[in-house]
Design goal:
Elements (H helix, E strand, L loop, with lengths): L1 H20 L6 H37 L13 H10 L3
């Protein structure tokens, strides 16, 4: 909850400025659509991409340091190999 609060506190001014920038756009209905639909959609996509980048970098770092490795190499069973071959993924 603290992380969410900090995130909102940091980004509130930025998002407010973006919304305010659309105040003088003509026609007004286009500005309304942009602010109410397109801007939140864009922000959600950017946030998702940033989260994915950070989590992928963390996973790559953890794997490079052998965190969570057990040393056991799992191989697919014969039934799974047939299913993979039939699906065309191999």
């Amino acid at each position: 909850m603290v992380a969410e609060f900090l995130y909102r506190a940091i980004t509130a001014g930025f998002y407010g400025a973006l919304t305010q920038a659309f105040g003088e756009v003509e026609p007004e209905w286009a500005a309304g659509i942009a602010v109410s639909v397109l801007l939140p959609l864009y922000i959600s996509i950017v946030r998702s991409v940033c989260f994915t980048v950070v989590s992928t970098l963390f996973n790559q770092y953890a794997i490079s340091k052998a965190v969570g490795r057990t040393g056991i190499i799992l191989r697919p069973s014969p039934a799974n190999r047939r299913a993979i071959a039939l699906s065309g993924l191999s």
